[in-house]
Amino acid sequence: MDESKKEPQTLSVEELKIKGNECVKDGKFIEAVLHYTHAIKMDPSNYVLYSNRSFAFLKLDQHYLSLQDANETVKLQPQWAKGYFRRAEVEAASGLYDEAIVSYTIALKLDPQNPKLLESIKNITDMQKQKIQSNQNTIWICTCIGFIVGIAVVILDYCCTTNPTLGHPFSMVAFSIALAGLGWSIGKSVTLMNTWGAGKSLQPPEELVGSDNANKETTQPEKKPKYSKAQARQRFKQGRL
Question: What does the pLDDT look like over 56-82, one tens digit per residue?
Fold first, then answer.
């Protein structure tokens, strides 16, 4: 039989993993995901494959899918530090710094001699401190702007009008403080919106949600017709219920 007519041999799980790793090194993350996915279909209990695919998804900014694979890695091998590390990386990329620190800490307990974990915890802690400081600066700046605007309005009202609305010193101070309070409220709202925005990238993609809803609609059980009490008794007598 001519060798050229032979069908190509199916790659093994290990060969697919190696190909996926090579694609990751070359920055071909979509191809890497395809290789890992093919390997997972052949060996669905291989936690290393889920870990590798989680990393590839993270590089593609697919945080939801990356977190799903990281969680599956932890589920299959809860004593493997790298699974928690993968989860922490996704949480950190999504702005969930508190959750990331917890995952990094669990990984460090399982692998206390890993310098990369220590460095990651230090980096995420610094990022969290910077975020807190940035939020405080935002509130402070907005408060100062509100107070300055209040003073400016008071000065203009006093100098540019013949009958100032804010003629009494108490009303001038109260107006300036009120605008400062408004600035504080605006700054606080901005920081809260930023906090609430953290983790939004972990929401499932719309196409996945749409497909799930479509599946639910197609698998809904058929509704049985409703009968009145008289009809039900008649059907019971006939042995049809």
Answer: 999 999 999 999 999 999 999 999 999
Contacts of 92 (CB under 8 A, 6+ apart): 100, 120, 124, 127
Tell me which residue has tokens 């922490």.
88
Angle between helix 13-25 and 47-59 (nearest 10): 20
Tokens at 69, concatenated: 């694979």
Helices (H), 111-168: 115-160
CA distance 114 to 144: 46
What is the three-class DSSP state of 159?
helix
User: Around Cβ 64, how many Cβ atoms within 10 Å?
Assistant: 15
Do you know the residue count of the chain? 241
Task: Return the pLDDT at 5.
Answer: 45
Q: What is the pLDDT of residues 110-164, one digit of tens each?
A: 999 999 999 999 999 998 888 889 888 999 999 999 989 988 888 888 888 878 7
Q: What percent of the chain has pLDDT over 70?
A: 80
Report the C-alpha gap between 124 and 126 in whole angstroms. 5
Question: Measured over all CA atoms, what is the biggest interatomic distance in the chain, rounded to whole angstroms?
Answer: 108
Query: Which residues of the chain form beta strands (DSSP E)?
Result: none
Question: 9 to each of 5, 6, 44, 84, 232, how far by Cα in Å?
Answer: 12, 9, 21, 36, 63
Nearest-CA neighbor of 139 among 187, 185, 177, 181? 187
What element of type H or E holds 95? Answer: none
List, in order of start, the domains of the chain with CATH numbers. 13-113 (1.25.40.10), 132-203 (no CATH)
